[in-house]
């Protein structure tokens, strides 16, 4: 499947019948034990993936599996690998990425303040858009934190990706945009295995 590698790239730098709606349900307050992505070697998430054109017509579809394959202690921080060359970890302020050059970026601030824009990588901004989006995906209903990743000038102000996380479960839905800011790939959670 030609877009499987793209999934791994976007997941590090930044879920057919899904609806996003405001929910009157208030999620429980986060506790210090909460994380956006539960990281443990062997944890895996399975997604139904569809590629769509700018009119929403499905061009291709399939399955993608994201699995944590390894961990490494670097300094006093345990970093986890998805087998892509970059590493990920949870810190007290959110979900971090260490790229193949050794640069570290806070990619998803958690917990965070809705509407606060923050710098992620050199050319990207992140923003927590909501802490209570209700999503229906093949796996079921989930109350999610939603994040938007955009390019910063001089690269443009285009959407790069929209991600929806349920704390302590992981990514529920991901929308990856093309170079003009239109949604091109949609990943929908169908199942997951958490070992710890």
Helical fraction equals under 10%
Return the string of H and E elements: HEEEEEEEEEEEEEE
How many beta-strand elements?
A: 14
Sheet having the most strands: 9 strands, antiparallel
Number of helices: 1
Radius of gyration: 16 Å
Decide which structural class fits the backbone.
mainly beta
Q: Termini separation (Å)?
A: 30 Å
Shape: globular
How much strand? over 45%
Residue-averaged pLDDT: 83
Uncertain runs with pLDDT below 50, 5 residues or more? 1-32
Topology:
Elements (H helix, E strand, L loop, with lengths): L3 H9 L7 E3 L21 E9 L5 E10 L2 E5 L2 E5 L5 E5 L2 E5 L5 E6 L7 E3 L4 E14 L2 E12 L7 E8 L3 E8 L5 E11 L3
Antiparallel strand pairs: 1-10, 2-3, 2-14, 4-5, 5-6, 6-7, 7-8, 9-10, 10-11, 11-12, 12-13, 13-14
Short description:
5% of the residues lie in helices and 53% in strands. With 196 residues, it is mainly beta.
Provide an overview of this structure.
By secondary structure, the protein is mainly beta. The chain has a domain at 4-15 and 33-69 and 112-193. The protein is 5% helix and 53% strand. It has one helix at 4-12, and strands at 20-22, 44-52, 58-67, 70-74, 77-81, 87-91, 94-98, 104-109, 117-119, 124-137, 140-151, 159-166, 170-177, 183-193. Strands 1, 2, 3, 9, 10, 11, 12, 13 and 14 form a nine-stranded antiparallel β-sheet that branches. A five-stranded antiparallel β-sheet has the order 4-5-6-7-8, with no helix packed on it. Strand 13 and strand 14 form a beta hairpin. The chain is globular, with a radius of gyration of 16 Å. The two termini are 30 Å apart.
């Amino acid at each position: 499947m030609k877009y499987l590698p793209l999934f791994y790239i976007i997941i590090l730098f930044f879920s057919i019948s899904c609806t996003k709606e405001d929910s009157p349900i208030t999620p429980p307050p986060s506790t210090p034990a909460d994380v956006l992505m539960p990281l443990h070697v062997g944890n895996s998430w399975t997604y139904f993936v569809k590629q769509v054109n700018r009119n929403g017509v499905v061009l291709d579809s399939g399955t993608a599996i994201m699995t944590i394959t390894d961990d490494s202690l670097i300094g006093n921080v345990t970093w986890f690998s998805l087998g892509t060359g970059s590493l990920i970890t949870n810190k007290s302020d959110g979900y971090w990425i260490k790229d193949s050059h050794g640069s570290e970026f806070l990619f998803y601030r958690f917990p965070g303040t809705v509407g606060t824009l923050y710098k992620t990588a050199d050319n990207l901004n992140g923003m927590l858009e909501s802490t209570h989006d209700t999503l229906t995906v093949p796996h079921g209903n989930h109350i999610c934190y939603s994040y938007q990743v955009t390019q910063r000038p001089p690269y443009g102000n285009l959407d790069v990706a929209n991600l929806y996380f349920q704390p302590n479960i992981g990514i529920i839905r991901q929308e990856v945009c093309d170079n003009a800011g239109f949604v091109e790939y949609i990943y929908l959670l169908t199942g997951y295995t958490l070992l710890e």
